[in-house]
């Protein structure tokens, strides 16, 4: 639980190039860029209305490079909710989420009360490597991120699906 009840830290994880920054920028600024600029770590603050009260979301957009394990551990220990992003064009990007999920479980102890969302991005691409998962019919949990590039559904999967990773 957040120390201040209306402050939530959301951390976005996923392999390099799957579109984490694009999803975050789409949510925060409503923009999309074609150019790929790898992230080290960026943090955004967004005030949102949630359950009739005002909340501050602090969104941490992490690197996909695996070069900073200490930063990853710190982000997990500080995070209240997690968005795990893969690209539907790359099975490998889904595989890379397993150790991240396991690390969240290890650091948080129990994840039953922690929102974790699995998001299949790049749904506009025709060359899919994980079509079944990306097209699973969904019931949306509260922290659903926005559509990515062109408003199509990014294939968010409820956290209950994550253990099957
Ligand atoms: N076709 C398509 N391209 C996308 C989509 N989302 C992002 N991209 C492109 O994919 C590339 C990588 O996107 P980023 O958002 O920078 O990826 P990232 O996961 O933040 O990468 P790192 O910061 O290196 O971990 C960019 O060229 C984006 O334009 C999408 O939904 N569809
Ligand atoms: Mg990025």
TrEMBL record:
Displays low GTPase activity and exists predominantly in the GTP-bound form. The keyword Manganese does not apply. SMART domains: RAB, RAS, RHO. The keyword GTP-binding applies. Residues 125-165 are annotated as: Disordered. It comes from Otus sunia. It is a lipid-anchor. This is Uncharacterized protein. GO terms for molecular function: GTP binding; GTPase activity. GO terms for biological process: signal transduction. Residues 149-165 have a biased composition (Polar residues).
């Amino acid at each position: 639980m957040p120390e201040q009840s209306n402050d939530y830290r959301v951390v976005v994880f996923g392999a390099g190039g799957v579109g984490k920054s694009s999803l975050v920028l789409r949510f925060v600024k409503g923009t999309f860029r074609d150019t790929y600029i790898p992230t080290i770590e960026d943090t955004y603050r967004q005030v949102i209305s949630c359950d009739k009260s005002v909340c501050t979301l602090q969104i941490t957009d992490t690197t996909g490079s695996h070069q900073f394990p200490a930063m990853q551990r710190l982000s997990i220990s500080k995070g209240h909710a997690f968005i795990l992003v893969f690209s539907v064009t790359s099975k490998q990007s889904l595989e890379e989420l397993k150790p991240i999920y396991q690390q969240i479980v290890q650091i948080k102890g129990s994840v039953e009360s922690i929102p974790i969302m699995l998001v299949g991005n790049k749904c506009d691409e025709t060359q899919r490597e994980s079509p079944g998962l990306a097209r699973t019919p969904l019931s949306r949990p509260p922290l659903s991120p926005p559509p990515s590039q062109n408003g199509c559904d990014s294939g968010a999967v409820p956290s209950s699906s994550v253990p099957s990773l």
